[in-house]
Design brief:
- The protein has a single domain, classed as Molybdopterin cofactor biosynthesis C (MoaC) domain (Alpha-Beta Plaits), CATH 3.30.70.
- It is built from four helices and five strands; from the N terminus they run E-H-H-H-E-E-H-E-E.
- The chain has a five-stranded antiparallel sheet with strand order 2-3-1-4-5.
- The relative contact order is 0.27.
- Catalyzes the conversion of (8S)-3',8-cyclo-7,8-dihydroguanosine 5'-triphosphate to cyclic pyranopterin monophosphate (cPMP).
- Its EC number is 4.6.1.17.
- This is Cyclic pyranopterin monophosphate synthase.
- It catalyses: (8S)-3',8-cyclo-7,8-dihydroguanosine 5'-triphosphate = cyclic pyranopterin phosphate + diphosphate.
């Protein structure tokens, strides 16, 4: 193939689920991240365990794992996968630690599968939903929170092998 083509569009321009039946099963992994920026006072509530709805980071981790398992129900052309790994990490970031100076929660997700197609969408969905969960649990005190920087960091496996985001 000399030029890249959209795999979810057929020769007539219609959307389709890609046929992966002839592809070999391989071990695949994807790592994604997201960040939810917030007021330093909101971050303090989370870190000190004083958020009214409970343990924000524990809930975000569980929500991210649940989201990874439901990705094909949310994204129409995604294949249902028998996920073998879903890990969600949430790290508080104090004001001034990031280049933009914003306080918040940095989310990193790692998903794995042995199968015929990739797991990038599951890792990205996990990061997105973990950030959304933080928003939901803290919106009563900080409606100005902002979800940002949701992106794929790494994917490995399958025909295309390793891809990593440049620093």
């Amino acid at each position: 193939m000399t030029e890249q083509q959209l795999t979810h569009i057929d020769e007539h321009g219609d959307v389709r689920m890609v046929d992966v039946s002839q592809k070999a099963d391989t071990e695949r992994v994807a790592v994604a991240e997201g960040f939810i920026a917030m007021n330093p006072a909101t971050l303090a509530l989370i870190v000190e365990g004083k958020a009214a709805k409970g343990d924000v980071l524990a809930c975000a981790r569980v929500a991210g794992v649940m989201a990874a398992k439901q990705t094909s129900s949310l994204i129409p052309m995604c294949h249902p996968l028998n996920i073998t790994k879903a890990k969600v990490e949430c790290a508080p970031v104090e004001a001034g630690e990031r280049e933009d100076g914003r306080a918040g929660i940095h989310v990193t997700t790692t998903c794995g599968v042995t199968g015929k197609t990739g797991i990038e969408m599951e890792a990205l969905t996990a990061a997105s939903v973990a950030c959304l969960t933080v928003y939901d649990m803290c919106k009563a005190v900080d409606r100005g929170m902002e979800i940002m920087d949701v992106r794929l960091l790494k994917k490995d496996g399958g025909k295309t092998g390793l891809w990593e985001r440049e620093a």
